[in-house]
Structure formats: C-alpha cells, structure tokens
Design brief:
Layout lengths: L12 E4 L3 H13 L7 E5 L12 E2 L1 H9 L3 H6 L3 E3 L1 E5 L6 E5 L10 E3 L2 H13 L4 E5 L1 E8 L5 E8 L2 E6 L2 E4 L6 H5 L7 E12 L9 E4 L6 E8 L5 E10 L7 H10 L6 H13 L5 E7 L6 E2 L2 E3 L14 H18 L12 H30 L3 H15 L2 H11 L6 H20 L9 H17 L1 H12 L9
Parallel strand pairs: 1-2, 1-12, 2-8, 5-14, 12-19
Antiparallel strand pairs: 3-7, 4-7, 5-6, 9-10, 10-11, 13-16, 13-17, 14-15, 15-16, 18-19
Helix pairs in contact: 1-4, 1-8, 2-8, 6-7, 8-9, 9-10, 9-14, 10-12, 10-13, 12-13, 12-14
This protein binds flavin-adenine dinucleotide.
C-alpha cells in the first residue's frame, strides 16, 4: 500500500488531482511501464473524497478503459451498475424514445454508473496498491518549477503545514475545472458558470427503463434519472439530477418548494410522488453542484499535460466528462508505452509525447463540447427554436434505428469525427424546419406559430454554425499548420 503522508523528492511524473482522470492516468502510466518501474506521485487536496457530488454515468467507451486499467471489477464489487443507454421522455405524457448502447456496432454494449464518491474511493484504492505509485492526500501544488529553457521540471507542494520541492520530468494537471496547474502554467481562466444541478437519491425509482439514463424534458431544464448503486439483493438506488438556471429562483429550504412546483409535475405520476417524497425529506439539504463551461485550453505545454476537466469541460447533459478524462488518461498511457524503453537519462514522456497527446486531444474534445452545447440548448426547451429542434430530434430518432445509432455514437463518444457531428446537426436542423412548416404531430398548429418556430430554428442553427465550423476545422486542419499559442 503506497498511501503516504509526505511526498519524496524525486519522481518521473507528478499528477495533481486524484479523481477520475488523475487515478486513471496514474494507473495507465504504471501499467505502461511495469518493467522499468518509473515512479509516479499522485497528490490531492482532499483527504478522502471531495464532498461535492459530480459525474456518475460513464459511456461504454469509458467503461472499456476502466476495464482495461483494472478498475471495472472493483467498481462492480462496490455496487456500480452496468447501464444500457439513454431514454428521452418529452414530458410526463409525451413522446418517448430509447437510445440503446447495443445499437452501436463494434463497441461494448454497456456503460457503467456509480455513486461519485464510491467511484473515486475505489479508484484511489486501486492505485494505492500499485508499487510504482505514491498517493498523497491533503497536499496541493503551490508552484511549478522550470529549467533554464522554461520546461516544467517539478513542483513545490504544500500539505500538513510543510512544503516539499519535488523534481519530475512531467507535471500532469488532473485537478479539475478550476485547475491550479493550468493557472500556474500561465493559461487564462475561461470558465463560465452556466447553471446548477440539484441531486437527490431515490430507492427503486419508477422509471420506464431501469438500467438506462432516463432524461425527462418539459420543465425549464432537463431531469436525468439513473441507477447509481445495486445492492446484493439486486435493488437499485437512483440519482435524479435536476438542471437549474444560473440565477437560482429559490435557495435553501425554499428550493424544495420551487422544485416541487416547477419540475416535479413534468415527471410521470409514480416517479413524481417518489421525487416529491425525497424533496420533502431533504428540505434545505439538497445536494447542489455548479455546471461550468470551459472551452478547451492548450492541453500540453513544455513539461506539462492537462487532462480531464482541467483540459476543458461542458454542461453534463451528454454525461461525457468522465469518458473524456478516461480517454485522456488512455492516450497518455499509450505515449508512455511508446517511450517505455527510452534510454535511461532521457525523459519518459518527452516533448514529442506531449505534442502528440495535445494534437489528439484537440481533435476529439471540440466535438464533444459542441454536441453538449447543442443538446443542452435543445433539451432546455426555453424558446421556439429549441422546441422546434426538440421536436425534430424525436422525429429523427423515430425515423429508424440508424438515426438512433448515429446520435448515440456521437453522444457516447464512440464517434468523435466532427464531419459526422456536422451531418447529424444539419439533418436535425432540417427536420426542425420541415416539422415547423408541416408538423406531423399537431392537428392544430396556427400559421403564425409555425413561422415563429421556423424563425427560431433558423436562428438557433445559425447561432451554432460558428461553433460547428470550429469543430470541423479542428478535424481537417493540416497537422503541419502551426497552432495558436
Ligand atoms: C452535477 C454534475 C453532474 C455530472 N454528471 C456527469 C455524468 O453523468 N457523466 C460524466 O461523464 N460526467 C459528468 N459530470 C462531469 C464529471 O464530474 C467531470 O467530467 C469529472 O469529474 C472530471 O474528472 P477530473 O478527474 O478531471 O476532475 P475532478 O473530478 O473535478 O477532480 C479534480 C480533483 O483534483 C483535486 N484538486 C483540485 N485542486 C487541487 C489542487 N490545487 N491540488 C491538489 N488537488 C486538487 C480535487 O480535490 C479533485 O479530487 C458531471 C458534472 C457535474 C458538475
């Protein structure tokens, strides 16, 4: 067990942040280098797990990485649940669509869901058992050390009222959206808080698809209900997350009343009763987390790599943050494996490794951010354009399994090509326009409402065009073209 109280003076890699991305990266590096046994230090500000609730649903691509890295078995043993896809319900009595992971050909048919705290606790337990890894809780990074060329070569760490200077070839920032490593590396902080998510736990929630992420629309923001723990008797405990605006209409004990009035009526009857019961039981103590958008910064600088949320995050509606962090860890592991036999005295993850990591990161992250942005806009259903897109999404998904498969591949990060995102986006916008002009599901739909929806859909689509173009460019830009600083 390598859980230690104080870091040593010399490592090959220092990882700041021992949550999903940090633990996965440490394990990926350790497995890539079992022969040479280079040394990896992982620090985290919190002794034990951070008290905030956060990501819990992991797409099959991420679940596969957890399995490859040896986390999946211990997580299942701790009660994590295999999940089968997403379902979307328009409102309590509205249209309903299931998007199953198994429809995506060539990938694992199930994702994984777990209580966030249990996820992090189990992952820390796994890395603490690796002889190459030192895990040090209750420590933060204070300064980055640089050599004469300006390449990061270590860090000044602080914990237990002491400071320790640690030398290392590479510092990895896995310290989340407010990353101190990113700030110390001199990158601007472009975080924007876009709203809040309230979270509650419900036993045996009455959802249509028990092992799916069940999205319910209709209220100001989407609600998502998914299993987080499976008991030994097979009973499931669920999380319900409720998306709230940035300017909270009510706080403290009054928030429960607001949720009861403004959200609960959009849930199907039995689930509404269960949610109301949970809200009344937790009056004034509802778990809350801010939702943040952070456009992807440079993911690597000399001697530094940023991974997970530190390297960009978006609204959690697509439940892709952890899968992205796991992919970052996997990529660094591949680079570490490629350099495993580098001559002694040479850096393990050298500048070539970090450059390649950044190039790959720059290609897949913007697609995910654009997708989250587009889906969130549509699922919030706040204006005419969003309602038109929402209707079009249902019609598109009802049009056949290949439409569902394509959307799901993008949503679950199995498909990251911006060209596919663009073509899906154009199809949905086309559907939105078509169904605004000739609605399929409304018998009475006055001309002026149709005109409003057409205008709304066009303005929403053009609004997002800049973003879509940026995503396309990330994919097609020639590798030799210098990137912006
Ligand atoms: C409400 C909500 C719901 C979400 N739902 C989902 C979901 O269903 N699926 C999904 O994939 N994603 C979801 N996400 C996103 C997901 O939580 C993040 O993408 C994921 O947690 C990022 O992991 P990370 O390891 O990069 O960073 P974090 O999980 O933020 O961890 C950062 C770690 O760094 C430590 N740290 C911070 N600063 C320092 C420092 N200076 N020194 C040392 N340590 C430090 C922290 O203590 C923490 O342990 C959700 C997010 C929110 C807010």
């Amino acid at each position: 067990m390598r859980k230690i109280d104080r870091p040593g003076p010399q490592y090959d890699v220092v990882i700041v942040g021992a949550s999903i991305a940090g633990c996965a990266a440490a394990q990926a590096l350790a497995l890539a280098d079992s022969e040479r046994r280079r040394r990896i230090l992982v620090i985290d500000r919190h002794r034990g797990v951070s008290p905030r609730f956060a990501g819990e649903l992991i797409h099959p691509r991420g679940a596969q990485i957890l399995e490859d890295l040896g986390f999946y078995g211990p997580l299942r043993a701790a009660g994590a649940v295999d999940v089968e896809g997403f379902s979307v319900l328009e409102r309590a009595d509205g249209r309903y669509v299931e998007l199953a992971y198994e429809e995506i050909v060539g990938q694992r048919p199930r994702g994984l869901a777990a209580h966030h705290k249990s996820l992090v606790r189990v992952m820390r337990g796994v890395i603490a058992a690796q002889p190459q890894i030192d895990l040090c809780e209750g420590w933060v990074i204070k300064e980055l050390q640089r050599d004469r060329q300006g390449v990061a070569c270590g860090a000044l760490l602080e914990g237990d009222g002491a400071e320790v200077l640690v030398r290392a070839d590479v510092v990895i920032g896995a310290d989340g959206k407010a990353s101190a490593v990113r700030r110390l590396a001199g990158l601007p902080d472009e975080r924007e808080t876009i709203g809040f998510t309230a979270g509650l736990e419900i036993k045996d929630a009455a959802v249509r698809a028990p092992r799916f992420g069940n999205v319910v629309l209709g209220a100001w923001g989407p609600m998502l209900i998914y299993p987080i723990t499976e008991g030994a008797d097979g009973a499931l405990t669920y999380r319900i997350t409720i998306d709230l605006p940035q300017a909270l209409p009510a706080k403290g004990a009054r928030l429960a009343d607001f949720l009861l009035d403004a959200y609960v009526p959009f849930l199907p009857e039995r689930l509404a009763e269960q949610t109301a019961e949970a809200l009344r039981g937790r009056r004034g103590a509802i778990e809350m987390a801010p939702t943040v958008n952070l456009p992807a910064p440079r993911a690597a600088l000399p001697g530094i790599a940023l991974i997970g949320d530190a390297a960009g995050c978006s609204h959690p509606i697509t439940a892709s943050g952890m899968t992205m962090g796991l992919r970052d860890a996997e990529r660094l592991g591949e680079e570490a494996r490629r350099r495993a036999r580098a001559p002694r005295g040479e850096r393990w993850l050298d500048e070539g490794s970090l450059r390649r990591y950044r190039a790959e990161h720059d290609r897949y992250v913007p697609t995910r951010q654009a997708l989250a942005d587009a889906i969130y806009e549509a699922f919030r259903g706040g204006n005419e354009g969003a309602r038109a897109i929402q209707r079009a999404l249902f019609e598109y998904w009802e049009s056949g399994p290949s439409a569902r498969r394509r959307s799901m591949a993008l949503l679950s990060c199995a498909e990251g090509r911006p060209s596919v995102f663009l073509s899906e986006y154009i199809k949905t916008a086309g559907h939105a326009l078509g169904s605004s002009i000739v609605p399929r599901h409304a018998t009475h739909f006055p001309l002026q409402d149709r005109a409003r929806q057409v205008r709304g859909a066009v303005s929403l689509a053009t609004d997002k065009l800049g973003l879509v173009t940026q995503v396309m460019w990330a994919q097609i830009r020639p590798a030799w073209l210098p990137r912006e600083a």
